[in-house]
Design goal:
alpha/beta; Ubiquitin-like (UB roll); Elongation Factor Tu (Ef-tu), domain 3; Rossmann fold; five-stranded mixed β-sheet; 18% helix; globular
């Protein structure tokens, strides 16, 4: 039986390969043109040491100098020895350039642009050979702005394998992509996406999960939850989604629908504007209690603007809480960046 292997390189680029039955990851990668660094194939040098973030495998044979028992217990492995027993996600301790690979370009067609609020667009694309664009829920791509050579970075809001690929895009006055979506975009427009990219993605769920989203930072969480609808989850998940103004709240019905299909998923929305009519006012950290913090025994996923990311980090520090895992992604929409 063959398995899908996600190779996530240290520069944020992800490539997917398939392993044949009984094949090592290193052999599968080399067969498909990706040169994971190694100086032996005997489990003796440790050059190909990587970290398995998801999936099951047979670690094979190796010596202590190459991989200690403690490292193996933490999830480290040698790609020259490991044989997948399920789909796996590997963090490769080398850049994609060193491994002789790169992100892939995909041609896409605009299906539609929906203005969800004054501050948010939903962009729907149909990709040519969509089955080739495998990604990890939470990752992003660079999208070329039609009529220009410029690109902007956006996280998927759709789960892997969706027929139509979607993105939440903030409407930034003067923004290059925002101007296109507001004024010129129409179904049938052609553009190019490049990826997948990024180290912010859903790992194996081994404990309670706390998700904190700010504004269009909700997008990767919609992708993660969409995946969990398919795969299920055995642990509690709590999402807190915060925005500045009442009108900025989008896709709440989608979250509610996911909550109906994912046992253990709860969520709350809040609005920072003091003049809001929303039941919960303030920032996401104002609506966390001991149940959600679980004395630190949790995995935290955080996506939002830099001030929000820093505020959450300070909150955990002040609470004396150190999550088992803390994954975050911050964005700063501007004319020169994502917009």
């Amino acid at each position: 039986m063959s398995f899908n292997i996600a190779l996530n390189f240290e520069d944020g680029i992800t490539r997917f390969i398939q392993s044949n039955p009984g094949e090592t990851v290193a052999d599968a990668a080399y067969r498909q043109g990706i040169n994971i660094p190694l100086d032996c194939r005997d489990g003796a040098c440790g050059t190909c040491k990587s970290f398995c973030e998801a999936g099951r495998y047979d670690g094979g044979d190796y010596i202590e100098d190459a991989l200690t028992d403690e490292e193996a217990g933490e999830g480290y492995c040698l790609t020259c020895q490991m044989r997948p027993q399920s789909d796996v996600v590997l963090r490769i301790e080398a850049s994609s350039e060193v491994c002789k690979t790169q992100a892939t370009d995909y041609a896409a067609e605009v299906v539609g642009v929906d203005k969800l609020s004054d501050s948010t667009f939903n962009l729907s694309l149909k990709l040519e050979n969509a089955s080739r664009l495998a990604f990890l829920p939470g990752q992003y791509v660079n999208i070329q702005v039609p009529g220009t050579s410029e690109t902007r970075s956006y996280s998927f809001s759709s789960p892997p394998g969706a027929e139509i690929t979607t993105f939440l895009i903030r409407n930034v006055p003067g923004g290059l992509m925002s101007g296109y979506l507001a004024e010129r975009a129409k179904p049938g427009d052609r553009l190019t996406v490049k990826g997948p990219l990024g180290g912010f993605y859903l790992r194996d769920t081994k404990r309670p999960v706390l998700m904190l989203a700010g504004g269009t930072g909700l997008a990767p969480f919609l992708s993660m939850l969409g995946k969990m609808v398919e795969t299920g989850c055995d642990h509690p998940i709590h999402l807190v989604y915060g925005v500045t103004n009442d009108g900025d709240l989008v896709e709440v019905e989608t979250i509610a629908n996911h909550a109906k299909r994912i046992p253990g998923l709860t969520f709350a929305t809040c609005v920072a504007n003091e003049g809001s009519n929303h039941p919960l006012k303030g920032y996401v950290t104002h609506h966390l209690d001991e149940r959600h913090l679980n004395a630190g025994d949790m995995d935290v996923y955080l996506c939002g603007p830099p001030p929000m990311v820093e505020a959450v980090r300070v909150f955990f520090r002040d609470q004396g809480i150190t999550p088992v895992n803390f994954h975050y992604e911050k964005f700063a929409p501007s004319e020169g960046g994502a917009s």
